[in-house]
Design a protein that fits this description.
This protein is mostly helical. The chain folds into two domains: 10-127, no CATH class; 134-165. Helices cover 76% and strands 2% of the residues. It has helices at 16-41, 49-54, 56-69, 71-76, 87-93, 98-133, 135-164, and strands at 10-11, 14-15. The protein has a two-stranded antiparallel sheet with strand order 1-2. Helix 1 runs parallel beside helix 5 (87-93), helix 1 (16-41) packs across helix 6 (98-133) and helix 6 (98-133) packs across helix 7. The model has no long low-confidence stretch (mean pLDDT 85).
Length: 165
């Protein structure tokens, strides 16, 4: 089985580079919407359903990150799951300078989207190649990964329970 060339690859008939460009533009638009929603609603956003779901302690931690790091936190949040869609509206509520926010979110979109798209694409095709070469090894590897993920989640849950007590 031949792995396709990433530059000649396509998803749903679209070239991979176009998928990356559309993804970056869509994420950039979402980040701008998050900022302006946070800017418009301000403190009321914390009392919203989303704010209650996230929790006041987590929001306070995100506020501390934004106050300390500013626009650099906006760029960094792309690389931390969970923070990616929380920090932008907190930045808006805290009135982070929009010019810096705009630059940081544009740089984040231009780096995070290609890395994750090409990375996932490579991972998927590596998996397909492994399945074609040795289905038994592929299933075994999947089992090991599932067990590692379960162990990590159990460890994290225990750690959170002890710190909350």
């Amino acid at each position: 089985m031949r792995i396709p060339d990433p530059l000649g690859a396509s998803i749903l008939g679209l070239p991979l580079w176009l998928v990356v460009a559309i993804g970056a533009a869509a994420l950039f638009g979402a980040f701008q919407a998050y900022y302006w929603i946070g800017h418009r609603l301000g403190e009321a956003l914390y009392r919203s359903r989303m704010g209650r779901k996230i929790g006041q302690q987590r929001i306070a931690r995100v506020e501390g990150i934004v106050r300390r790091w500013g626009a650099l936190a906006v760029y960094g949040c792309f690389w931390i799951p969970g923070l990616r869609h929380t920090l932008p509206w907190v930045a808006g509520a805290l009135r982070v300078d929009y010019r810096w926010y705009l630059v940081a979110s544009a740089l984040g979109c231009l780096t995070w989207v290609p890395v994750t798209t090409f990375g996932l694409y490579s991972l998927i095709w590596t998996w397909v190649r492994l399945v074609a070469a040795s289905p038994v090894l592929a299933v075994g590897l999947l089992g090991v990964l599932a067990a590692a993920a379960a162990a990590f989640l159990a460890w994290r849950r225990r750690r959170n329970m002890t710190t909350a007590s």
